[in-house]
């Protein structure tokens, strides 16, 4: 065997163990008994110890130096393994294990604090997570920007400065659009009861319609919906609010976008570094285009309206046009995951600024709730009424996912570019969506984005798919056109 063969055999086992660790995390969020939280923290710490040892094994350096790639695929595998090795060797093993252990138990503490509306029960643990992430960032940055070092885990090549500059360009148009829309009469929200069993049946049908393969996945309930896994075991979750079925339906479609990315990767890349999405931004582009440009389009919501009449009977909406306006209703709201397309990126921009300040030490955990509430009131014109609607709403910080939030808006930007290219490639897309048929659209995304996995750098994936480098302009143009039409601007 060659050095490259030895390296890939070793890496395959590492990837398999990482999938097992991921399954422990899935179980913790869906089925694990509450009393197992401390033990699960120890289990996650032990798994991270094993994975860190493999990711820093000295043989990797020797294999990487001796390996002779024969094609672009092999070059890409080596690029990703070298990147992982370089990052892992900078982080002490005891720090990696401590992070895994603390963030595992922190998720349970966050969930209980959120349910009890007691932010004080979570803040000491959050302070511990942040202190460990600051140590990790310092080890990775080696004198550079701490937040850049963390963000690079989720969006390689992106920086806080470039992201902040893009956000500064986006914010004025988003604020102008929001003001214009909110100046118009808003449709009334749905008013009725939609039982959990019927919601979940429709969610499963929507998932299958968007291409989710239930022979390689499953749908469960979670406090905060997510997708987990890769290869041939990719699981999704949703949540049910019996007065708001859109919460369930669009959470499901969103997570199906993530899952279909992983399921759509070339099977030859299974259990290799290429067998995962290129970045969280590219990942988010798939979930957001599934959810919004496809799932909330007037054409598709017309089909959904007829489906809901069949499944729920008369639910107080008189026409497909009214239904579409309700689905795309714009209003200030507390919850990011429930935000309309106009407000969504403003939620992300707020979190981006707050977590940069936390990592830099400019904002202390004791002051976080006040800083959040002040910023939210300034950005959205609404006072936060309770912690679960404020700083406790997202699971990310309990998981240690600092640097992750900006990828949500990067994903929206990428989705805007992909949607423009998709429309050009499928001029009859609306006719298909009106029949509830998304196969051509999801097929185009699978061929042009998903199958490549980690073969290319994130921006290169989008550039190749679209024929132009990613920019925020297509997203902003799409939002202006869509909501201008819906609200008669």
TrEMBL record:
One of its GO terms (biological process) is proteolysis. The keyword Zinc applies. Keywords: Carboxypeptidase, Hydrolase, Metal-binding, Metalloprotease, Protease, Zinc. CDD domains: M32_Taq. Its cofactor is Zn(2+). Binds 1 zinc ion per subunit. It catalyses: Release of a C-terminal amino acid with broad specificity, except for -Pro. The keyword Protease applies. Zn(2+) binds at residues 254, 258, 284. The active site is at 255 (proton donor/acceptor). Belongs to the peptidase M32 family. This is Metal-dependent carboxypeptidase. It comes from Gemmobacter fulvus.
């Amino acid at each position: 065997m060659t050095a490259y063969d030895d390296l890939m055999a070793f890496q395959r086992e590492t990837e398999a163990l990482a999938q097992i660790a991921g399954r422990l995390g899935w179980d913790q969020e869906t089925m694990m008994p509450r009393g197992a939280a401390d033990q699960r923290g120890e289990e996650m710490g032990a798994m991270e110890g094993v994975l860190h040892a493999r990711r820093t094994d000295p043989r990797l350096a020797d294999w990487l130096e001796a390996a002779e790639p024969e094609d672009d695929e092999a070059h890409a595998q080596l690029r990703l393994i070298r990147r992982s090795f370089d990052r892992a060797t900078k982080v002490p093993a005891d720090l990696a294990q401590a992070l895994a252990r603390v963030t595992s138990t922190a998720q349970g503490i966050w969930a209980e604090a959120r349910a009890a509306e007691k932010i004080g029960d979570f803040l000491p643990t959050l302070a511990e997570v942040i202190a460990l992430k600051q140590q990790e960032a310092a080890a990775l940055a080696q004198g550079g920007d701490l937040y850049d070092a963390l963000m690079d885990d989720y969006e390689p090549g992106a920086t806080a400065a470039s992201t902040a500059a893009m956000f500064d360009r986006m914010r004025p148009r988003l604020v102008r659009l929001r003001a214009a829309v909110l100046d118009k009469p808003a449709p009334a929200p749905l008013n009725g009861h939609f039982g959990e069993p019927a919601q979940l049946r429709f969610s499963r049908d929507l998932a299958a319609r968007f291409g989710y393969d239930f022979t390689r996945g499953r749908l469960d309930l979670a406090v905060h919906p997510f997708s987990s896994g890769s290869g041939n075991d990719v699981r999704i979750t949703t949540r049910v609010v019996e007065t708001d079925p859109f919460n369930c339906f669009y959470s499901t479609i969103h997570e199906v976008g993530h899952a279909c990315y992983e399921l759509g990767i070339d099977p030859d890349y299974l259990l290799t570094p290429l067998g995962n999405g290129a970045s969280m931004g590219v990942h988010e582009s798939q979930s957001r285009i599934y959810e919004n440009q496809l799932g909330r389009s007037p054409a598709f919501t017309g089909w959904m309206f007829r489906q809901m009449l069949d499944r729920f009977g008369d639910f107080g909406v008189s026409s497909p046009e009214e239904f579409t306006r309700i689905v795309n209703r714009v209003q200030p709201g507390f919850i990011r995951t429930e935000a309309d397309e106009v407000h969504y990126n403003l939620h992300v921009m707020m979190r981006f600024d707050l977590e940069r300040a936390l990592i830099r030490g400019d904002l202390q955990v004791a002051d976080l709730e006040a800083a959040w509430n002040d910023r939210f009131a300034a950005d959205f014109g609404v006072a936060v009424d309770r912690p679960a609607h404020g700083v406790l709403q997202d699971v990310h910080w309990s998981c240690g996912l600092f640097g992750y939030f900006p990828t949500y808006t990067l994903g929206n930007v990428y989705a805007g570019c992909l949607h423009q290219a998709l429309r050009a490639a499928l001029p009859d897309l609306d006719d298909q969506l009106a029949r509830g048929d998304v196969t051509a659209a999801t097929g185009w995304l699978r061929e042009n984005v998903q199958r490549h996995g980690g073969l290319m750098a994130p921006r290169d994936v989008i550039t190749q798919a679209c024929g132009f480098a990613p920019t925020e302009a297509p997203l902003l143009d799409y939002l202006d056109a869509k909501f201008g039409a819906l609200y008669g601007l």
